[in-house]
């Protein structure tokens, strides 16, 4: 092929063929809003009564209870007693709703004072970089995120805990692993029964405060 012909071929080929096609981006996880009501029904026990329904076989003390609140607590705030595994949502009339919860295992639980900045129905979930680095055999397969739904680790509802404008990646959320309630199971979050998380979600206002108190081992060290 002469130089002239070769130049013509190269020039002509640029008219016929564009730049290399980029690899398609991996689909981002989603939560299908059309399924939310259906999923709510899927996780609600038949004949559900918050104070008595217990198909999960929990200790009775972990079922929701309305209790008296201590004086001076601010209505709308949440207090997590990490030793007893209770979450208290303070009400207007000097009472609080108490729910059984599970907290994080080992030193992954982070006591502190947080703002409930956001809340979501049937959230998507993506493990943090720290989670993947700590347990790649468990979390690396989910690095691209998980769609919302009954099997999602964040479950039916999630309340997002912030310090100032910084997302801590700590959540109060439902869990498909409902028999873990009362134990230490998560990677940092506070877990609830799916339906209990739905009940709590309906009454939580963003901007209120969540107090996470130290667990038994931290108290022992102190």
What general outline do the C-alpha atoms trace? globular
Main sheet record:
9 strands, mixed
Mean pLDDT: 88
Task: Report the helical percentage.
Answer: 10-25%
Radius of gyration from the alpha-carbon trace, in angstroms:
24 Å
Q: Briefly, what CATH class?
A: Mainly Beta
User: Number of helical segments?
Assistant: 6
Q: Order of strands across the biggest sheet?
A: 1-4-3-2-11-6-7-8-10
What is the string of SSEs from the N terminus onward? HHEEEEEEHHEEEEHEH
Q: Helix/strand/pairing class, anyone?
A: alpha/beta
| Percentage of β-strand residues | 25-35%
So, the CATH homologous superfamily? L,D-transpeptidase catalytic domain-like
Brief write-up:
With 222 residues, the chain is of the alpha/beta class.
Notes on the protein architecture:
The chain has one domain: L,D-transpeptidase catalytic domain-like, CATH 2.40.440.10. Helices cover 22% and strands 27% of the residues. It has helices at 3-16, 36-43, 129-134, 136-139, 194-203, 216-221; strands at 65-68, 78-81, 86-90, 95-100, 103-104, 112-121, 157-163, 166-175, 184-186, 190-193, 209-212. Strand 2 (78-81) and strand 3 form a beta hairpin.
